[in-house]
What we know:
- The protein is an alpha/beta fold.
- It has one domain (11-194, 217-345): Rossmann fold (3-Layer(aba) Sandwich).
- Helix content is 40%, strand content 12%.
- It contains 14 helices and nine strands.
- It has helices at residues 11-20, 44-55, 74-77, 87-94, 108-115, 133-145, 152-158, 168-179, 192-201, 208-213, 222-235, 246-270, 288-295, 341-345; strands at 24-25, 33-34, 64-66, 98-101, 122-129, 185-189, 273-276, 301-308, 332-336.
- The strands form two sheets. The chain has a seven-stranded mixed sheet, with helices on both faces.
- A hairpin with a 7-residue loop joins β1 (24-25) and β2.
- α5 (108-115) packs parallel to α8 (168-179), α9 crosses α12 (246-270) and α12 (246-270) crosses α13.
- The termini are far apart.
- Residues 1-43 and 70-92 have low confidence and may be disordered.
Amino acid sequence: MVLHMRKSFLASVVSALVFAVGAITFGATPARACHIAEDNPSFLFGRIVQSWTAKYKHPLIGRVYDTRGTEPNPQKAQFKEFCLLSDDFWIMIERPDILLLGEVHDNAEHHRLRASMLQAGAVVSEHVTIDRAPGLARFLEMARTTKRTLTIDDFKELLRWPTSGWSDDVAQLLFTVAMQNKIPIYPGDVPRNTILRISKEGPAAFAENDVARMKLNVPLGEKLDEALLTEIADSHCGAMPKEAFHGMAFAQRFRDANMADMLLKAVEKHGSAVLIAGNGHVRTDRGVPWYLHQRAPDKKVVSVMLIEVEEGGTDPESYVPRDPDDKPAADFLIFTPAQNAKTRARTCAPI
């Protein structure tokens, strides 16, 4: 198969997905699969996946799943291929304006994989808050002008990384993006004290025109509001009644709306953008894509979640996140090894 990839928007970023569907295996098993290319030396992406498959024997690891071809009915789903070579699929991955790459925050492999995918456009990062923007700007300026080679320690010092709450794996991801790929990085989140203030004050924390501009005045809808509340209450292990989390739910909406805002600014300046954030933020039903659709319905947006496999969980359908109407809440899933799953299961979010 010969793919004529344009050198414009995110060609190299989505090459991994393009090559992922380059080799379809037509076995007799109900779940037919496409595997990320492992033998192309030009793709670190493929080599990372090769290291996974050499170490782990789970059949889903390293595979890309196109959720737009799935069916909730398992009797129908068993006849679906892992990747569908439809025209819509090729058009979407070749020419998205905005690519959203999710993560499980404490999975180092997710950060390592995405560093291999980011080679064009601009990056908006959940992991960099607006108050760290001056340090980030200083680092990027030094990267362009200094004669000495900057190090990961320079990055961490200028961004005050030890106080960020994020791991060194995330710092390495952003450092690689900035230094090796020369990609501009935009802050995507706000500081925790701002989030707490928004949780208490709600829309009153903003000017009315900002609420309207960011589409925070547009209701998600009763079903999605309930789903968001339930998710937040569950993440706090039922510490308070679900109704007590309305303020946090609005703050979560603001965070998604703010990331969408930064992405649109990055696209306007650089022509394309990639978001790196948690899987919850890239949900198509109520995350960042919802706000992008409200504000810029003409933009092509692709949501990709990195999903940890579970022992014995070999049906890709069982991993697909869904909205209250049982529709997929992501465009693609990339299956990865799991890390820290047992520890994470006992962790509750702080109030």
